Amino acid sequence: xxxxxxxxxxxxxxxxxxxxxxxxxxxxxxxxxxxxxxxxxxxxxxxxxxxxxxxxxxxxxxxxxxxxxxxxxxxxxxxxxxxxxxxxxxxxxxxxxxxxxxxxxxxxxxxxxxxxxxxxx
Length: 121
What we know:
121 residues, mainly beta, 3-stranded antiparallel β-sheet, 3-stranded mixed β-sheet, 1 helix, 21% strand, disordered N terminus, Cytosolic_carboxypeptidase, carboxypeptidase activity, Cytosolic carboxypeptidase N-terminal domain-containing protein, hydrolase
């Protein structure tokens, strides 16, 4: 049932402690203290349609992302929009795991298309 699915989603997706978007958040490695270095990725969603609520640094090349709920339906997270800055040249590839995007069972063949734009400094 719909209620059971909603309850499952709420129980299995981590709560976002703040209802605000991340604003120029630097994802430091665990135990690192100091100024950001090139390669410490900076995530931002403080703009219209941005909805990134939390980032967890897993490795130098992997990050777990948690999306804020949709405004009109807080039980669902079905899209995401954020920016990433401060990538170093030797780090051309990194993995982001969008951990809490929720797509209903009635859309089993839905495809997610990523739009990536890169600006070289």
